[in-house]
Specification:
By secondary structure, the protein is mainly α. The protein has a domain of about 70 residues. It is built from 3 helices and no strands. Helix 2 runs antiparallel to helix 3. The longest helix is centred in the middle third of the chain and has 58 residues. It is rod-shaped and about 120 Å long. It starts with 14 loop residues before the first helix and ends in a 27-residue tail after the last helix.
């Protein structure tokens, strides 16, 4: 299956050609979506680790202070981190993937629509009626040799 990424109309442009295309006839998104996905996953992992780590430390400190046992705070904080982190990572990765797939689908719809318009225009050009010669002539645009200027036989 051919993967199309790039333009709506005209020829395909390179990355920088699409980036500086002020008429927006060629898109850059399809060319960089893989890179955006990798960068997004790295940022999601960092964000989830920092967020759940911070919340685990806060909850652990709160429980250590409210109960007279430091071990309870550490255990509950570690359990929170070990249980919540994988769930948040999975949900966040799925969310990023779905959003990027929606973007790719929109651009593929755009490409397919442009291709459909091009094919319909070709079909209309091929089906356009050809001019025919008048019935009193022999098929050429000039009159036949045995007719005068009014199309009557001499």
């Amino acid at each position: 299956m051919e993967t199309r990424t790039g333009s709506v109309g005209g020829g395909r442009k390179g990355f920088f050609g699409s980036l500086f295309d002020l008429s927006f006839t060629s898109f850059v998104t399809g060319k960089v979506v893989s890179f955006l996905y990798v960068v997004s996953l790295v940022l999601v992992v960092i964000n989830v680790l920092l967020t759940t780590g911070y919340l685990s430390i806060l909850l652990g400190a709160y429980l250590s202070g409210s109960t007279d046992s430091t071990a309870v705070g550490i255990i509950v904080g570690a359990l929170l981190f070990l249980i919540v982190t994988p769930i948040l990572l999975l949900l966040s990765m799925v969310y990023v993937r779905v959003l990027l797939e929606i973007v790719v689908v929109l651009f593929r719809i755009s490409d397919n629509t442009a291709e459909t318009v091009r094919l319909l225009a070709e079909r209309e050009d091929a089906a356009a009626p050809r001019p025919t010669a008048p019935p009193w002539t022999d098929g050429t645009t000039e009159g036949s040799a045995d007719t005068n200027d009014e199309g009557r036989a001499d």
